[in-house]
Amino acid sequence: MEQILNIQQQLLPDLVEVMRKRYEILRHIQLMQPVGRRSLATTLHLTERVLRGEVDFLRIQGLIQVDSIGMHLTPNGAQLVSQMEPLIKELFGLAELELELQSYLKVGKVVVVPGDADQSDWVKMEMGRTGAQVLKQLVDGEQIIAVAGGSTMLAVAEMMMPTPVFKMSTFVPTRGGVGEAVELEANYIASLMAKKTGGKYRLMHVPDQLSEESYQTLIREPQIQEVLQCLRSAHIVLHGLGDAKRMALRRQSSHEVMEQLKAEGAVGEAFGYYFDSRGEIVHHIQTVGLRLQDVNHAVKRIAVAGGISKAAAISAICPTLKQDVLVTDEGAARAILQKRSF
């Protein structure tokens, strides 16, 4: 197969590009369905005229169906997309990229999706779909799943489907509210995952940042203690990775904290801990939620993060947290490997 692909790339490079373009159209339709032609053309940065020709071809081949509410994949189209995924990874070097990144970051398994989440929202949706698939593969029986907040975790939640393996699972937020849009809070995402899959959930009704006095008062509350005990016995931790400065701004951190993070060279954040480029913790906020030692005690740790802007955070944090699975994108993967020291 590899030899055939090499021959195609040398003799028929245009054919390879056409295949990738049609695969991306099918994948976008799968993620956005039902979707109108104009919306799809905008997302793919294609003219409606060019897209119309491709849509007509795919419809004639029986891969998509077009009706009044938009386009969606036929069963044959969905099957083809699934079959093409490993081929596309091999053809465009993503399989090799996964192995290189896996070795460099010392991660159990790396899954790289095409594109750059900083440039296209559909890439984040694709990471969400992949993250949901990874979680489904790792869940086994009555388990507690600790879930973080953020836009990437929301993408994972939105891609989850009702599955028998999740019915005995309990989704628990890793922390309280950061004070951002409610749909990005861990509480909302944990409840959405439970609703989508048929599982159960618990909520943590506390702010993300607390004074020492408030922290000591809250952790003595029976209800909070019960949720924390549940959270700290999590089998699986599912989380994103944040850029240090962006996360500090989202938390409305003080000027003093912002200056400290800058002086210490903080590049990434996870679970309220800020890391420098060497993976050293340079700052930690007082929060009721999952602690770093709890994360390391979990049976499985899954990180989902992408975009070139997250490359430094991924590179710094993943080796420290000893991730079992990292789901990322091509943009972040190539940026990380380009900056490695040989």
From TrEMBL:
Domain Sugar-binding: 90-338
GO MF annotations, alphabetized: carbohydrate binding; DNA binding
Pfam families reported for this sequence: CggR_N (PF21715), Sugar-bind (PF04198)
Lineage top rank: taxon: Bacteria
Domain CggR N-terminal DNA binding: 18-87
Coiled-coil parts of chain: none
Record keywords, A-Z: DNA-binding, Transcription, Transcription regulation
Family of this protein: Belongs to the SorC transcriptional regulatory family.
Protein name, as recorded: Central glycolytic genes regulator
Originating organism: Hazenella coriacea
